[in-house]
Amino acid sequence: MIDFDADKPRKLREAQRSRVVPAPEQAAPIAPQSTDEGFSFETVTLETKALGGSPRAVSKLNDAMAVILALFLLVVPVPYGANNSLAWLGAAAVLAMLCAGYYTLILLLDPQRPSKLRDHPWVLGFGVLAIAGTIWQVSGVQAPALTLPSGQVQLSQATVAASASQLAVIRLISYGVLFVMMLEVCTNQLRIERMLSWIYAGIIVHAVWALVSLGFLGDTLLLGEKTAYLGYATGTFVNRNSFATFLAMGTVIGTARFMMAIYGPRARSPRRRAKSRGLTMEAVVHLGWLAILLAALAATGSRMGAFVGFLGMGSVATVILLKNGTAIWKILLSGAVLAVLLPVAMLIGGESGTMERAIFGLAQADARTELFRQTWHMIMQRPFVGYGADSYPLAFELYRTPELSAGLTWQAPHNTYLTLWSDYGLILGSVTMLAVVAALISLLRAIRRRELAYLPAAIAVAVIVLTGAHSLVDFSLEIAANVYVFIALVALGLAKRAHSRA
C-alpha cells in the first residue's frame, strides 16, 4: 500500500491521523478536500517572507557602505586638504549619492528598521539648527544695517559674502550627511572596529606620504608644486598646522590601540579584564605605527600640533588606565613617559625647528593677540546676526586697523570660536559648540556605562579635547578634511549596537 503522507513532516502526519472532528459551533482550521479517487488532501498555507524585511541583507549593505565611507575619508584630504570649493562640491555630491542610494535600499530591504538618529536628538537638533541658520543668511531676508567706521550700510542679505555663504551651506550639509551615514552604518561592534582600523590606516598612509615627499621627492604636494611651508611636512594639505591636527587624531587612535594591547582583555578570557599583559608583539607593532605618526607630526614643525597631539594621547591613555583601575600615580608616570617620548620622536624626525619655535614662539604672539582683539571688536559691532558664513576675510577688512601689518591678508582669525561668532553671531555661532558639548556628554556617559566596548568613545573624547584646544589658536577644524575625520570618529564613539527585533 502506498503511503501518500511519506513526504510530509512527521508532526503533520501524526496530526492528520489523529484528527478530531471539531464541534459544530467551532470552525475547522484545516478543511479536507475530497476527490473522486477517494484520496484526502490538505491545503497548507506557507508564509513567505517579503522583500521588505531582510536584516541580513541590510547587514551586508552596511558592510559595503562602511568600506565606501572609509575610502571616502582616505581620498577626501588629497585635493589640498579639501580646502577649496571644488573639493567641497565633489565631496558633497559623493555623500549625497551615497545617502540617497543607501536609504532607497533600506526602504526596499527593511522599511521597519528604526533609525539611529533618534538616539542622539540633541546633537542632531543643534546640527540642523546650525545648517538652518546658514540657509537663512543666504535666503534674501532683510538684515539689520551694517555699522562701519565710515557709516551704516544696508545689506540685502545677512551675509557680506553671499557666494561664499552659499558654498558653506553645501559644505555643512555634507558634514551632516556624513554624521548620519556613520551612525546608520556602524550598528555593530565588529563594523565599528573595522571602520576605526580603516580610518587609522588612512591617516598612516598620509603620514608615510608626507615623510617620503619631504625626504625623497623634493618636498612636493601630490597634485602640484608646493608654494608654502617649504622644508616642513604638509602631506596633501597646504597648511602644516592643519596637517598636524590630522596626524594628531591618528596618534590618538594609535595610542589607544597600543594601550589596549597592554591593558585589554586576554584572548582566552575576553570577559575578564587583566591589569596588564605586558609588552606583547601586538603592542610592539602598534608602537611602530605610532612612531611613524609622531615622526610625521614632528616634521610638520607645528608647535601647537605637537602640543595637542600630546594632549590627545594623554587623554585617551588616561581614560583607558582609569577604566582598568590603574592608580593615579601610575597615570602620572605614564604621562611623564609620553612627555619624554614626544621630544624624542621630534628628534628622530630630524626637525629640531619645532622645538626652537616652541621656545621662541612667545615673541611672535603680539600679532596674534592684536588679531584676536580686532576680531572681537568686529563681532561686537554685529553680535546677534554675524557677517555670514565664510565671510570673515571680506568682513575683517572693513574693520582692521593699522596695528596689524597691511601687507598680510587675514583669511581667518586663527581661533575657530571667534570665526563662528563672527560668521553667525554670538547666539547662532554657539550652536555648533553646543552640538559638540552634547556629543561629549553622551560619550562620557558611554565610557562610564560600557565595560569593554568603550574604546571608540574614549578616542572620540580625546579627539574632541585636542581639536578643541587647537581651535583656540588656529583654524585647523575649519579645514574640510579634518572636519570629515573629526565627525567620523565622534560618530563612531556615539554609534550604538542595533538590537534584534521580534
Automatic annotation (TrEMBL):
Keywords: Ligase, Membrane, Transmembrane, Transmembrane helix. InterPro entries: O-antigen_ligase-rel_domated, WaaL-like. It comes from the Bacteria. The chain crosses the membrane at residues 64-82, 88-109, 121-139, 159-183, 195-217, 237-258, 279-298, 304-322, 329-348, 424-445, 452-473, 479-495. Residues 1-33 are annotated as: Disordered. The keyword Metal-binding does not apply. One of its GO terms (cellular component) is membrane. One of its GO terms (molecular function) is ligase activity. Residues 1-17 have a biased composition (Basic and acidic residues). PANTHER family: TEICHURONIC ACID BIOSYNTHESIS PROTEIN TUAE. This is Lipid A core-O-antigen ligase.
